[in-house]
Specification:
TIM Barrel, binds flavin-adenine dinucleotide, alpha/beta, 11 helices
Length: 283
């Protein structure tokens, strides 16, 4: 039942299914970032096992000539147990990505991890040869994000901008959607004009439209940035953007630890619960 429910947003339980989904998206001119689902591991062994899947993915991406990179969560790499363990794991992953011409995106989790994530990515990015092989995510709902972007751009770090998916208190994050949207547009404009290749991650047509209008007005070429969307969400918009000449990358999650990811997707859009419920009742 879980497998069937989650299949709308999750590419499968195993590496091979995710690689297959990546190849199919590549066939439609869409780039991919692969995410082996999992967060908040309970032991160093679990963190090492999670990292091993990423090394396997980086090799497979290289061998199969896929247009893909990887996205990773620090709490899946042992951040809660030992931040130094998580850092060493991400460092080794970045070195592997460097050797295979790929890229590691460190996803952003709840705000208790924001500063530590930024500090870690900056340290790893600053190590010789790592430039351009590790990047970060910034969430438009946090008040601090514009200042964080200023620091990261000085280092030349690639950023994925998203609205943010965690429950945050009003002293840390804009409480209203309108304010988050306004901040998203402001930050997206800073990013696409920065001369560094960033990802604008949203399914919100208003955000997409504002970004398109801004780049046209500023004469910024579509090759200067990419739109990013989640697997199974707004496939129509993904393809429409590709046909207009924009770059699109889809975030392809897979694995048995699908539950928290799946619940965040449902929370974003209550209509998804109804859609899934209807499908389950039908089958
Ligand atoms: C590639 C990518 C990577 C991400 N990485 C992170 C990360 O590292 N950290 C983090 O906190 N968050 C991450 N997110 C999630 C993000 O923060 C938002 O929670 C999520 O994208 C929903 O915001 P939105 O911009 O799509 O707009 P919203 O305002 O949530 O939605 C606008 C419209 O988009 C459509 N839509 C949005 N979500 C869905 C959905 N699930 N199903 C169907 N339609 C939908 C609907 O039409 C909706 O009305 C990521 C998102 C993407 C696309």
């Amino acid at each position: 039942m879980g497998r069937r429910l989650s299949s709308r947003f999750v590419a499968g339980m195993h590496t091979d299914e995710a690689l297959h989904a990546a190849a199919a998206l590549n066939d439609h001119g869409i780039s991919v970032t692969l995410d082996s689902l999992g967060e908040n591991v309970h032991s160093p062994d679990e963190a090492h096992r999670s990292a091993a899947i990423y090394h396997e993915l980086l090799d497979a991406i290289h061998e199969r000539h896929l247009d893909a990179n990887v996205s990773v969560k620090l709490t899946q790499m042992g951040m809660d147990l030992d931040p130094q363990l998580a850092e060493q794991i991400v460092r080794e992953m970045t070195e592997h990505a460097r050797a295979t011409g790929s890229f590691v995106r460190v996803d952003m989790e709840g705000s208790e991890y924001t500063q530590a994530t930024i500090d870690m990515v900056r340290r790893i990015h600053a190590e010789p040869g790592n430039e351009g092989h590790v990047g970060i995510v910034i969430q438009a709902y946090l008040y601090r994000s514009q200042a964080d972007i200023g620091v990261l751009l000085k280092d030349g770090i690639r950023i994925r901008l998203c609205k943010g998916a965690y429950q945050e208190a009003a002293d840390k994050a804009f409480p209203g959607k309108a304010q988050v949207d306004e901040n998203f547009v402001r930050l997206a404009e800073i990013l696409v004009a920065s001369g560094i290749y960033h990802g604008i991650a949203t399914h919100d047509e208003k955000m997409v439209q504002a970004t398109r209008a801004f780049v046209k007005e500023q004469g910024i070429p579509p090759s200067a940035f990419e739109f990013q969307m989640l697997y199974g969400v707004r496939r129509d918009l993904q393809r429409a953007l590709v046909s207009e000449g924009y770059r699109v990358r889809v975030y392809v999650p897979f694995g048995t630890e699908w539950y928290p990811y799946f619940m965040r997707r449902l929370a974003e859009r209550p209509a998804n619960v109804i859609f899934l419920a209807k499908n389950v009742l039908k089958s």
